[in-house]
Design goal:
Blueprint lengths: L16 E3 L2 E3 L5 E3 L2 E3 L6 H21 L8 H17 L2 H4 L6 H19 L7 H7 L5 H15 L37 H5 L4 H4 L1
Antiparallel strand pairs: 1-2, 3-4
Amino acid sequence: MVRCQAKKAHLLPKPIFKLGNITITPRETITYLGILLDPKLSFRQHLEETAQKCRSHIPLMQSLAHNTFGYEYEARKIMFEGFIFSLMKYCSSVFYHRLKLKTMRKHKTQVQRRCNIITYRAYKDIPGETASLLAKDLPIHLKIIERSIKWLLDHELPVPYWDHLTPVELDPEEGFQMKGQVVTPPEVRREWKTNNIPSLGAYLG
């Protein structure tokens, strides 16, 4: 049973349910189809646990891709995409709108930075944006947003958050096309990566 809390619900005593001789106490979170749901639907715990799971996989990948030996660049990109980034993208249309908050984005971007450093065999102290450019990899939160919007449009569902993309209307016969124009919201105009990197997507390939 899932129970969503209203405002000031934390001031009320937690309910206790009994089923025969079994006492059921409520939990703060519940996992449903791989997504960790919390009472406020903030997805903070889900993003944190997903990032922790990805971090635990990175040492295994690093053992296969050392700086001086191991798989080459293209093979590394394929392995990280399938083994790490696929976990971060899972069911992204549910929580992607939370990535507009820096505190939420950092769980994704920190993992991507480590992966890109290993992919390109770069120095460990370089910033995340530099690691993305060297590894020819768009920032993970932008890829998640684009992936989520595409899924919502394909299923004719409302899109609550567009970020750097131009809102488009769905054509039932022709589908939809993402416009190449980059729109930078006022609150992120100072973030060069949001303004520039999406327009380099075709070039980075």
